[in-house]
Amino acid sequence: EAQVTQNPRYLITVTGKKLTVTCSQNMNHEYMSWYRQDPGLGLRQIYYSMNVEVTDKGDVPEGYKVSRKEKRNFPLILESPSPNQTSLYFCATAGTYEQYFGPGTRLTVT
Amino acid sequence: AQSVTQLDSHVSVSEGTPVLLRCNYSSSYSPSLFWYVQHPNKGLQLLLKYTSAATLVKGINGFEAEFKKSETSFHLTKPSAHMSDAAEYFCVVSLLTGGGKLIFGQGTELSVKP
Fold first, then answer.
1. C-beta separation of B92 from A45 below 8 A
2. Which of A42, A71, B36, B75 is deepest in the core (most CB within 10 A)?
3. How many whole angstroms separate alpha carbon B47 and alpha carbon B68?
4. In the prediction, which pLDDT does A11 show?
5. Which tens digits make up the pLDDT trace of B21-63?
6. Neighbours of B114 (CB within 10 A)
7. How confident is the model at residue B106 (pLDDT cuts 50, 70, 90)?
8. Residue A58 touches chain B, beta carbons under 8 Å
């Protein structure tokens, strides 16, 4: 079954404590990306990757890092989380005609 | 530059009545357009997609959308609403058919009254 998995699904953390949200796909897709969803703003792209070792900024990259060492994995790193990064995060991977989204990670930074 | 505008932040209908969720887009190129649905505390599910084939696109659960280039619109419709249709709906545009950045509208919350 085609799948995009994210972990953790829920996370409450404190300001400044580094965290990583993992994303993994089993569809052998080259393109992967991260979005954040905030009320009234829809989803906005944080970072994307066209292939292994190729990453680039989306619309809201500040405060985030990514890496793409393997095709299947695309972790999102928050080196020093702040309360304005409290959000719902989605990982996505692109096939020929559509994108597939993970189940989401709800992050709260206090 | 590409952009998407969903004209209503909230739509309320009665069960059994038609649904219309409005979406206008702006794109310098021939776009790919999508509608996604998000049920409460759930992920995103693709309802339907337009990729320069037929302008009337049929999706899952009885939804359909019509691509109108002259009006730059891609409105989502359903003849008869069901309680299970209550959710948030996103109109999305992409330059590329699949890969590439998606531009999301702000979302329309659909409520269905019994």
1. no
2. B36
3. 18
4. 97
5. 999 998 777 788 999 999 988 889 999 998 777 889 999 999 9
6. 6
7. very high
8. yes
User: Tell me, what amino acid is at B6?
Assistant: Q
Structure tokens at A13: 């953390």
3-state secondary structure of A107: strand
The Cα–Cα gap between B22 and B74 comes to 7
Q: What share of chain A is helix, strand, coil (3-state, %, to 5)?
A: 5, 55, 45
Of A31, A44, A103, the CB nearest to B99: A31
* pLDDT band with cut points at 50, 70 and 90 for residue B98: very low
pLDDT digits (tens, 9 = 90+) for A3-54: 999 999 999 999 999 999 999 999 999 999 999 999 888 899 999 998 999 9
**CA angle (A4, A65, A94) in 5-degree steps:** 30
Q: What percentage of chain B's residues is helix, strand, coil (to nearest 5)?
A: 5, 55, 40
A83 three-state secondary structure: helix
Mutate to test the interface with A, among B46, B90, B101, B103 (most CBs of A within 10 A): B101
Quickly state the pLDDT bin for B96 (edges 50, 70, 90): low
Look at residue B99 and tell me whether its pLDDT is greater than 60: no
Distance CA A63, CA B85 (A): 36
